[in-house]
Structures are given as C-alpha cells and as structure tokens.
Amino acid sequence: MAFNKGADITERKLTDKDLTRMAWRSFFLQASFNYERMQGGGFLFGMLPALKKVCTTKEKFSAAMKRHLEFFNINPYFASFMMGLVLALEEKEEDPNLIRSTKIALMGPLGGIGDVLFHFSLLPIAASIGASLSMEGNVLGPFVLLIVFNVCQFFVRFNLGKYSYKLGLGAIDKLTTGTKDIEKAMSILGIFVSGGLIASYVRLSLPFIFKMGEKALNIQTDVIDKLCPNILPLMYTFLMFWMLNKKYKPITLILTTIGIGLILGLFS
Length: 268
Known about the structure:
Blueprint: H1 16-25, H2 40-54, H3 58-67, H4 79-91, H5 96-135, H6 141-167, H7 170-201, E1 209-212, E2 215-218, H8 219-227, H9 231-245, H10 250-265
Antiparallel strand pairs: 1-2
C-alpha cells in the first residue's frame, strides 16, 4: 500500500484552536499509563475533541476511538506530532490499516528522536548550566533549568501537532531531515558544555613535591599543568564513561569516587 505523501486536505475541519487544545491535552498522555496499552488511553484523550470533529458519523467515531485506544508508546514531547498526523489521516478517511501501520512504524523512530533531543541532549545541557550557576551561589540556577527545558518542550508540543496535521504524511520526511541537523548541533553543544564543566568542577591533582637542594619541583603545577592543563580531571572523566559502558552502576561509581577522595585526602 503506497503512502500518499504530502496530499493536501482541501477543506480542513480543524482550526488552530482545536490543535492547541489537543496540545494541552497531550500533557495527560501518561495519566492512564498501564502495561497493557501503555499510553493508549492518554493518546486517545488528547485527540478526542478533534477526532469527534473530523469523523463524519457516529460509527466512524466509535471505530476510531477503539482503534486509537490500542497499545501506543512514544516520547511524550512528540505525542502531539503523532496526534496531528493521525487526525490528518482520519480526516481524509484513509484505510484504518494504513493509519494503524503508520502509528506502529513511527512509534519507535519518533521515540528515539525525542529521547535523544530531550533526555540525552537538552536536559543534561540545561541541568549542567543550572547546576554550575547554583554552585556559584546564583539563585537563578534552578530556574534556568526549568525555563530552558520547558520553553523548548512547550514549543515542540504546540507547533509539531499543527505542523504534522497541515502536511500529513509529508511531515515525516521533513521532520527526519530537520532533526538530524538539530541532533548534530546539540551534540556539539553538549561536548563544549561537558568540556567546560570538567575543567571547572572536576578536581584531581597530584600533591607530590620533589626537593633538590634549595629548589622544589611541584609535579602538578610545574610538570603536568604545563604539559596539558586539567588532563587528570579529563582522564578520570573518561574512566567513568568507560566504566559506565562496562555496565557499572552510577551509584557504584559515585561511592567509589567518594571513597578514593577520602583516602587520598589523608595523604594531602
């Protein structure tokens, strides 16, 4: 069955107000989360008023409700994108099997894109900036995290639903192309932020001093720092990443770091 990509809907039944209401309701996506249908109930709840508007008969509305109450799982911030796309297909009265297969095919990729952009890129970067401000005594630290993250997620929720509804299946290709560039930019920004935080907040130095007559040679400041400043914090951070990849638990690494710090502190 071929997709009719980018086909336009000549007389759209949903207004921007309807799609904004859908975006607000998408915040309750996981309110009825369960292991049988995952986010199925929340997905239907988000679309319900708009779905009733695009279905032409009571029978079609009933069938659509039953269809969208099935198993569903996606990154919450991209739920409105899927809702808008599904509403566009329902409005065009596409084959129910096409609608169902579209949802199933896109759940995984959109979930992965959302996790990378929000959970693995935006959230750590915003949290790092907020934490660095807090450690300097700036009370704005927590608010920076909340404002940056929520401005981005509100923007995505309230715009992607309208975008996917207006473009139909053609939105998939455009979203995929755009997110690749965003992922690359976020990765570069994340590397810069991580490097700055390592140099600023990871403290690791060697306290050894060699004395030769009246002269003293500090191994850390006179040798290591002149060859490559902050190389020890960087090496320790790489060691932690390597151990995480070896399936060591984060709490184990945290307690180990504290233990090493306390032991070495006795010799400083």
